Amino acid sequence: MIGSALGDRPGHGAASLLPNMTERDNLSAALSIEHDDPDRALRLAKRIVEGTDFAAWKGGSALLSRLANDARRTAKRTARVAVVGSYTTTQFVDLLRLAAYRYGIHLETYEAGFDQYRQEILQSDSEMYRIDPDVVVLAVHDGAVELPDRSSDPEAEVASETVRWTALWRHIAESSSARVVQHNFVVRPDPVHGNLAKSLTNTRGSMIAATNAALAAAAGGGVAVVDCDMLASRIGKDVWLDDRYWQIAKQAVSLGALPLLARHTAAVIAAQLGLSHKVLVLDLDNTLWGGTIGDDGIERLALGAGSAAGEAYAAFQRYCKSLSERGVLLAVCSKNDPEVAREPFRSHPDMALSEDDIAAFVANWEPKPDNLRQVAENLDLGLDSFVFVDDNPAEREIVRQLLPEVEVVELPSDPSGYIAAVADSLLFEMVAITDEDRQRTHHYRARSSTRGLLETASSIEEFHASLSMEAELFAFDETHLPRVVQLVNKTNQFNLTTRRHGEESLRAYMADPSTFTLALRLRDRLADHGLIAAVVAVPADDAFEIDTWVMSCRVIGRTVERTVLGWLIDTARDRGFRRIIGRYIPTPKNALVSGLFGDLGFERGPNNGETQTWHLAVPPSTPLNPFIEVHNG
Amino acid sequence: MDDQADRIQSVFRLVLGDPALVVTDTTTAADVEGWDSLAHINLMFSLEMEFGIQFAGNEFARFTDVGDLRRAIEVKLRF
After folding, report:
1. Which of A133, A199, A401, B19 is the 20 to 30 Å CA partner of A341?
2. pLDDT tens digits for A364-385?
3. In this complex, is the C-beta atom of A62 within 8 Å of any C-beta atom belonging to chain B?
4. Please, which residues have CB within 8 angstroms of residue A166's CB and are 6 or more apart in sequence?
5. What is the pTM for the complete model shown?
6. Burial, A190: exposed, middle or buried (Cβ in 10 Å; 0-12, 13-18, 19+)?
7. B14–A6 C-beta distance less than 8 A
8. Interface of A with B in 253-272 (CB under 8 A)
């Protein structure tokens, strides 16, 4: 019986690599139901990714291959990933498939030959480009760095090595629409200079560190770096750099470190593909503070200085607050009396979180899955962007079972491990931070206030009028490009065609005089919503075709679409187009806009496969949207 | 089957992805589907982790069959 054979033996390896019995238990359980319940087997296999047990990962990866059809069906999306490297990457690719599935991606992979990364990238007709990859992973190691052991001009050496890599990135951007994930380089212990090495700028190690810094600064815009030097430090450089494996098998990253590398690479790919999570849902009792507010009262909660647990809960709160400051929305979901649950937020001196930090606050005695659905509805966000944190295993289990799309973090029993549990899940990995991210909680809170208004206004028209909305309309420009890129790549619901244009192709649209771009900023008397809509329209014979139209969910139900329609009609008429063509390409996420063109007066044409085509004859005068005052920028 | 052989077998099953695999002292790489040079590295690494031992670089390719491997592990465990 495989279950007992795998499950009952503690390992005896190096401490950081000790096989975690839960991982092997999950694998055994997955293997035992592989044929009867493949979906559940795959959910169990995902949990192997929480740990770093290489053998369990291999087992999980093999299971995933056997259940490839089920994996494709249950993943959020499929992505083609090319791995080009400087060492034997077969093992890495194998583990990357499992890690990517854990982050919702079914991978179709192409692995270049050993140390073929330059050839694959530089030859525009190479096999890698032929698969039209969504992402190219540069799985390279410090041995691939072309720096000398010592240099008389280290700055020039670093500059030229940096350019060598950024030129490869540029080549990928010019030859494909792929995003790039670059592994950076581990700085080895310096056996010659010892502790002095860090003081010398002209050693290979110092130059590699400088190259890492330069590459991190040059990344962005479709290129993301996985910080291998940091990962190696965490797991131990002696573990990561096991030279025996390089000498025997040209395995530059030791097998014990590969799971960590695969997990981080997959999380970065997920972030690049817009699959990052947006909402952190927190329980209260024994999650944000020690004790039960309803039973213990404010005075007896463990929070803040005075006890180890109190310190740990306060640290976890500060961590959650920092996440919210970089754009993660916080929600509270607690089984408590609503007024009692808010008491610590109002009067406990050691609360790092205030009610203002919480975008949605639900405290009642209803089942948590119901409450999570309610929170999702209030925030207008999909449950698949939710991460649920609760110290109670029973609550975690019921959410796992009833809402499988919600990510549930496995919290340890000791609150000092809470931060690591959330951070190591890598569910909030991001590839850039914009000003919009920093202000998101404010936007969503303002949105909640507008919900309040909606209840007092007697008609939807009165509500819209009461908001005093103003829109600024302008073409894409360099200043707003990062936000446009983010909007085009992260928006799933209000997205007519779900075409994910990267920074370079959006820049190409900006430069093309026959293409029209629209960025729209919305303000009302409660909040500045920032840049919330982006449109790309291109000529198609005598018609004006909407290639891309995305809007943030924050402003759905605000009549912004009517303002956009006005712009489309004005622009089409100015350029002498007779018709506007809109296309709706259905995805599992964008049912919200399936009726949009019909609502705006377009006529349905024939389908092209699943794609719906809609036409609008350009009218002689443009219908006005009375609720939004337009300023043209 | 004794303890060491049992643990070796479970590592083989896990790493080669075959829950029904049976290995004995006389099993060689040629007898097992999927036991290629790449899988061999995976097996050696996973055995190192399982038993908390290290093989020297020149030992990796030396073992003629599973029994040979088992005896080498037992020697390492004793010292």
Report:
1. A401
2. 888 899 999 999 988 889 999 9
3. yes
4. A215, A218
5. 0.71
6. middle
7. yes
8. 254-256
